[in-house]
Amino acid sequence: MNCIPVILSGGSGSRLWPLSRQTHPKQFITLTGNGTSLLQQTWQRVEGLPMVQPPLVMANEHHRFLVAEQFQQLGVTPTQILLEPVGRNTAPAIATAALYVTDILKTDALLLVLPADHFIQDVAAFQRSLQWAMVPARADWLVTFGITPTCPHTGYGYLCCGEPLPYPHTHRVSTFVEKPDLATAEAYLQAGNYRWNSGIFLFRAQTFLEELGQYQPEIVQQCRLALHQGRQDLDFTRLAQDPFAQCAAISVDYAVMEKTAKAATVPLECGWSDVGSWSSLWEVTPKDELGNSCRGDVLTYNSKDCLVHSQHRLVTLLGVENLIVVETADAVLIAQQEAAQEVKRLVEDLQQRQRPEAQSHRQVYRPWGTYDSIDQGHRFQVKRITVKPGASLSLQQHHHRAEHWIVVSGTAEVTCNGKTFLLTENESTYIPIGAVHRLANPGKIPLEMIEVQSGAYLGEDDIVRFEDQYGRLPSP
User: Fold this and answer.
1) Which DSSP state fits 52?
2) Cys bridge to 470: 245, 253, 367, 454, which one at CB 3.0-4.6 A?
3) What is the per-residue pLDDT for 320?
């Protein structure tokens, strides 16, 4: 029986702000030293295993091009990228993936459900537990991977192992429990039969749908409508918004795993972390002799047990302990290690204040490349623009701003009011207010350019789109 990984990539990762933002959350970021993102690592740890098929990816529609690009970098074509129009937690996401397998692919494969934002140090140990889980999963058990606890952690949910089942290393799950207080967590650790709930599952698609249909039949119904009423958009499947939005926002644990009589668990001892906070990242990253985990241009003196992440400038620490220091182009976070879980509240406050730093970085990703707003003031803004080889911005118009374009490297194909011409290094052009224009990169290397905007209004919503190769709808 084939196994299809279902990668859940809809999270926002707000506890890793300011590095993780709504438009570019933690699963797309390189947080560890191997040069790949958490999403890419999620696939790499199962790639090449016998019977494992290309992944099904459940993604936020706003991240669709990030997902596609990161798999393209690995040379992998997913079975499908399913776009959620709204977030509805893990039960509807997994249900939709299972329905895609049974209704569209017409098969009953095993589904390996993998959150896209986890970190695993020992891939061989993970694969060994996966082989153990295959046996009960084929026999209609809903298998969850229970992390053998290493400390009385209060930030994870737990599961209790019940009677052993007639499969290697497998127990029935007797109960799921919420995040405990410290005394309860210590008691769980002493008992020896409790494990952290990883959120990683393996089961037959049809078995899962049958169990979900017993406890949440309306989710199955609405997800089936969302899938069959959805539409293909380039390399993506857009789920229909109305039926998907009707689904209850509920986790797979609440919807199925805590109710079913078919819940089983296998142990997982692999250096796992959900990277749910800066302190959890500190725990799994290499440290110097004083316990400091540093990335970027960082110098520490007489400081210990700190996590320091610098993106753009020198960061120095002197005589401090247990700090988190994260520097990005437009924001700096300084916090005590013990306050790491409170970062989410800080982000909520930024959202209430409508601060753009909660939503996006200074560098913004687009399907054609990136732009970085390097300076701005009254009636002007300066951007550094990078256009990928073969990529093109939309044919567009601005009502309130003019633009000067200066090519730094590469070749630009410019369309302005019906005329098309090429610009190369050190050449420039002017786009007047109201001109219908387009920028493209016909070359084989990235196009780097500086854009100087001037005008009364410089917001990103001053764009009237006429054509777009990425399926973004024309402006009304």
Assistant:
1) B
2) 367
3) 98
Burial 151-161 (b: 16+ CB within 10 A, else e): ebbeebbbbbb
DSSP 469: T
Task: Indicate the DSSP class of residue 361.
Answer: -
> Nearest 5°: phi and psi at 12?
-110, -20
Cβ-defined contacts of 360-363 (< 8 Å, 24+): 360/21, 360/22, 360/23, 360/24, 361/21, 361/23, 361/24, 361/328, 361/329, 361/330, 362/328, 362/329, 362/330, 363/329
Q: How many CB atoms lie within 10 A of CB 231?
A: 9
What tokens were used for 38?
């958490």
Task: For residue 108, give the amino acid letter.
Answer: D
Could you tell me the two tokens for 339? Answer: 């306050």
**Residue in the block written with tokens 């459900």:** 113
Q: How confident is the model at residue 474 (pLDDT cuts 50, 70, 90)?
A: low
Mapped onto helix, strand or coil, the DSSP state of residue 139 is coil
Q: Is the pLDDT of residue 356 over 70?
A: yes
Q: What domains appear along the chain, each with residue ranges and CATH number?
A: 3-273 (3.90.550.10), 278-349 (no CATH), 363-467 (2.60.120.10)
On whether the CB atoms of residues 347 and 17 are closer than 8 A, the answer is yes
Contact indicator for 198, 272 with CB cutoff of 8 Å:
yes
> In this structure, are residues 158 and 194 in contact, taking their beta carbons and an 8 Å threshold?
yes
Name the pTM for this structure: 0.91
Range 312-317 contact pairs with CB under 8 angstroms and sequence separation of 24 or more: 317/292
| 407 — pLDDT class (breaks 50, 70, 90) | very high
| Region of residue 57 (left: phi > 0; alpha: psi -120 to 50; beta: else) | beta
Dist CA 93 CA 54 (whole Å): 18
